[in-house]
Each structure stands twice: as C-alpha cells, then as structure tokens.
Amino acid sequence: MDILGWILVIGLFIVGLAGAVIPVLPGVIAVYAAFLVYGWFFTFEHFGWGFWTIQTLIVIVLLAADYAVGAWGVKRFGGSKASVWLSTIGAIIGPFVIPAFGLIIGPFVGAVAGELLSGSSFQKSLKVGFGSVVGLFSSMVVKILLEIVMIILFFIWIV
Fold first, then answer.
1. Residue 48 has what DSSP assignment?
2. How far is CA 88 from CA 34, 67, 79, 94, 145, in A?
C-alpha cells in the first residue's frame, strides 16, 4: 500500500509540474492534491496549520499570478484590454485547436487580433502579440518555481 501511495504522490507532482506548461492539466491543484493523498495513505500528522497556510497561500498566489503575469506581458508591450482578454482566450483555446503549438500561437493570435480590433497598427499588434508570449513564458517559469518550492516544503515537513 505504501508503494501505491508514493506512486500517486509522485505522479501528482509530475502532473502538477507538467500543468505549469500544459494548461489542460490541473497544475498546482495536482501538487496540492498530492499532499492530501500522502495524508490519506500515510498520515496527516506532519502537516500542521503552518504547512497548510503556506501551501494554500502559494496556491492562491499561483492561481492569481497565472492570469496577472500573462496580462502583464500584454500590457507591458502596450496592449489594450481587448488584447488581454483575447490573449487569455487564445491561451485556453489554442492548445485544443493546434495541439503542438497552440499554447504559443493562441495567445499570440489573440493579442494581435485584440490589438487590431482596438484600431492599432499591424506593427504594434505584432509587438503586443510578442508581449503575450513573453508573459506566457514568464508565467510558466513562476509556476514551475513556486510548485518546486511547494514540493520541497512538503519533503522538509515530512522529514
């Protein structure tokens, strides 16, 4: 039973880290679920209010930052509200429409379309589209780093 528990915990950690890059995977929620699985299979004894408070705060920061950092990239490169909205929609829909490259192309096309709809030049629209990709990659880096921090804290707490 211990082996199954560890397989599930490690599997959820892997899914969580992959979810930082692949938006259809649960990401940080999978990492958080791994803590619950560990508790159910082994013990919750290691996890006090401090552990749950820190981990929950990281989850909240990650969920908020996921959208904020993407929007920051668009805004930093001069994008409008329409560009922010359409790049977010592109990030959600893109991977389904173009499985291999939709994660990058979706936000880019969404930001460019939003900027063109707002009346900007094609040159500025491309710049904003590039900003959406910068925001996307920045968001991925932040998510991966914070999820790694969550996993490290988990192991520190149980040892």
1. -
2. 28, 8, 13, 10, 22
Type of residue found at 21: V
Q: Provide the token pair at 55.
A: 């981990």
Global confidence as pTM: 0.82
| C-beta of residue 135 within 8 angstroms of C-beta of residue 84 | no
* pLDDT tens-digit series, residues 10-65: 999 999 999 888 777 888 999 999 999 999 999 999 899 999 999 999 999 988 87
> Residue 81 and residue 95: Cα distance in Å, rounded?
22
CA pair distance 136, 131, nearest whole angstrom = 8
Burial class of 86 by CB neighbour count within 10 A (0 to 12, 13 to 18, 19+)? buried
Per-residue model confidence as pLDDT tens digits over 97-152: 887 788 889 989 999 999 999 888 999 999 999 988 888 888 889 899 999 999 99
